[in-house]
Design goal:
Structural class of chain B: mainly alpha
Helix content of chain B: over 70%
Largest sheet of chain B: none
Distance between the termini of chain A: 33 Å
Strand order of the largest sheet of chain A: 5-6-7-3-8-9
CATH class of the largest domain in chain A: Alpha Beta
Shape of chain B: globular
CATH topology of the largest domain in chain A: Rossmann fold
Number of helices of chain B: 13
Shape of chain A: globular
CATH architecture of the largest domain in chain A: 3-Layer(aba) Sandwich
CATH superfamily of chain B: ABC transporter involved in vitamin B12 uptake, BtuC
Structural class of chain A: alpha/beta
Number of strands of chain B: 0
CATH class of chain B: Mainly Alpha
Oligomer: heterodimer
Largest interface: A-B, 22 and 25 residues
Radius of gyration of chain B: 18 Å
CATH architecture of chain B: Orthogonal Bundle
Distance between the termini of chain B: 44 Å
Strand content of chain A: 25-35%
Order of helices and strands of chain A: EEEHEEHHHEHEHEEHHEE
Helix content of chain A: 25-40%
Order of helices and strands of chain B: HHHHHHHHHHHHH
Number of helices of chain A: 8
Amino acid sequence: MSDKMKEVLVKLKDVTVSFHKQSIIDDVSFEIFADQIVTLIGPNGAGKTTLLKLILGILRPDSGTVWKKDGLKIGYVPQKLNLPRTIPLTVERFLCLEGRHKRDSLEDVLSATGAAELLSRSIHPLSGGEMQRVMLARTLLKQPELLVLDEPAQGLDPVGEEQFYALLTRLNQTKHCAILMVSHDLHVVMANTHRVLCLNHHICCSGSPDEIADLPDYHTLFGKDSALAFYRHHHDHAHLPDGSICHVD
Amino acid sequence: MWTEPFILRGLTAAVIMAILASPVGCLMIWRRMAYFSDSLSHSALAGVLLGLGLGIGQNAGVTVLVCLTALLLTQISDRFVIGMDLLLLIIGQTALCTGIIGFSYMPGLRTDLTAYLFGDVLSVTNKDLLFIAIAGGFCAALLFFYWKKMVFSAVMPDVAQSEGVSFKKQSVIFMVLTALFVALALKTTGLLLISALLIIPACTARFFAKTPEQMAGLGMIIGLVCVIAGLACSVYLDVPAAPAMEVMCAFFFLLGGLAHCCNKKIM
């Protein structure tokens, strides 16, 4: 299906954000379509989390517009939950943080993310993988049209990581929710994503994994041993030491 | 003895304080702002002076000044180079010292300083009680309407914000709540012991609670037992009431901690 046939959920136009006179997001425009999996990649400090926060409405842009479909339901799984140990929480109570839900629906979402047995457990001793599943389950309670995940597989072992991405792909197919995620796991990104955005304050390049794969040095990067491939791809410009951009034309 | 009006008044004030202390204390602990009540309560002394100076009464003075301090603190960005914990310490100590210096200029009040610092629950008047009931009512209403959102915001500020629970708004409500609590607890515990009675019963409840609501509820019960026991010590053994309440709280905390450790075999 081409992008044109799909509904637009989020549309960013010429968005700029700066902190302390330093530009974090520089003139970024893109759209997220229904049902699409979009992955945001880029170096540390490139503004990936800031971009997510703009879409979530946690931050406002200095200029430009962040348009969202009327009544768009977004589920957010943050990068790392810095949960105060002083707060006693069971998984059940955690799932009901923003409102009460029937026990049935709690069990449903937990089984959808493969964490059914955790319902009455305390949240503090959960492993990283279990916690991610519980957080994902929480977002499913309100049947989101868009899931936003910030490095969701961070801290998971390779097997857990693969399972988690498989789970995301399954949710995308069965629940028909679009997914926007930040990820560094490029081998998975390439396999499971509809569109890749490379961000370094501005959008360096974007396209389907195939399009990116067509770039000249793809084979040296994402060859047979893709899991070990080091990510580097062709840009039409270079970043000079003073922060300016030099186009290679 | 317990039917004496001054003891009944003191008991009522202490009971209202103990009931509200646990949920407010829980929120404070979860938001990692235990220092906050300390700084606010230290500014209460200056509030007493303000109230007497303006002729609006000391309760009103304390409420106004503590609320203003609290709201001022919400305006400080967490990106400020001097962290919030440090700022709270500086503000608290300064407010306390300014208050004490102010008191030294008021000969009539100088003798009352201990009462303001460590409380004087048995001298609660009917007028004080009315104020405590009104402030307590406001606190209870805020807690009732915003509890769920404040818990959400304390657990996951970013996620709560993305789901329409504004962190800023919850912070303001929380600060006003704390300010009201400080004003109503001042007479019972004195400004130096407010934090202790706010934090310790809630911490004790943490050992046994499985949900935030259990912690707040259990903390209430523990707080009630402590203030009543503390008051009884004061009446029968003639010891100062607020310190006796604090020691009771610490005693239960120790018991709770021991029970918790035996149960979990951590030690």
